[in-house]
């Protein structure tokens, strides 16, 4: 049976300070992971809010169109809706674009559809360390107005895509 040689106190002195290097590296890795989790979580949160605002703005614009509103009325209602969701057009980091009729997608040039695109840019928390100082998100929604008639009534419907 073979025994490992015991370490002498002199060999321990050669390793002094090594734990500081490993601890520093480990802390840097943990901070990088925490920063990535924080920035990614906030990105998902803001993207969901942005999509909700775009959906609401498209619906609001479609209801205004259904009530006989014109282009400026639809634009005002759509922008008011995004503002009520926390995304005010004209702020440095927000851009709200409303198209009636839509300029792209399935309902291009359909005068019964309203299209809204919202873009939001914000500063990152930790991703700036790796060169990503800002993130930009965009969400779009299209609402289509239609109707059905029978002998006694006419029913409107609004569908969002």
From TrEMBL:
- Does the record's keyword annotation contain Membrane? yes
Question: Where on the tree of life does the source sit, at the highest rank?
Answer: Bacteria
UniProt keywords (A-Z) are: Membrane, Transmembrane, Transmembrane helix
One Pfam family in the UniProt entry? Tad
- Quote the protein name from its UniProt record: Putative Flp pilus-assembly TadG-like N-terminal domain-containing protein
Membrane-traversing stretches: 16-38
**Organism for this UniProt entry:** Vibrio ishigakensis
Cite the InterPro entries for this sequence.
Tad_N
This protein's record includes keyword Membrane:
yes
Ranges where the Putative Flp pilus-assembly TadG-like N-terminal domain occurs: 19-62
């Amino acid at each position: 049976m073979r025994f490992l040689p015991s370490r002498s106190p002199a060999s321990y002195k050669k390793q002094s300070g090594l734990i500081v290097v490993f601890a520093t590296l480990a802390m840097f890795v943990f901070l990088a992971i925490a920063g990535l989790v924080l920035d990614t979580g906030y990105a998902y949160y803001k993207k969901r809010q942005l999509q909700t605002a775009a959906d609401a703005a498209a619906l609001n614009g479609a209801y205004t169109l259904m009530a006989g509103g014109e282009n400026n009325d639809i634009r005002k209602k759509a922008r008011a809706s995004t503002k009520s969701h926390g995304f005010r057009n004209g702020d440095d980091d927000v851009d709200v674009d409303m198209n009636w009729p839509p300029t792209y997608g399935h309902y291009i040039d359909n005068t019964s559809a309203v299209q809204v695109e919202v873009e939001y840019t914000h500063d990152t928390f930790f991703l700036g360390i790796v060169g990503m100082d800002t993130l930009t998100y965009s969400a779009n929604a299209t609402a289509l107005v239609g109707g059905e008639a029978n002998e006694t009534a006419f029913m409107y419907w609004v569908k969002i895509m």
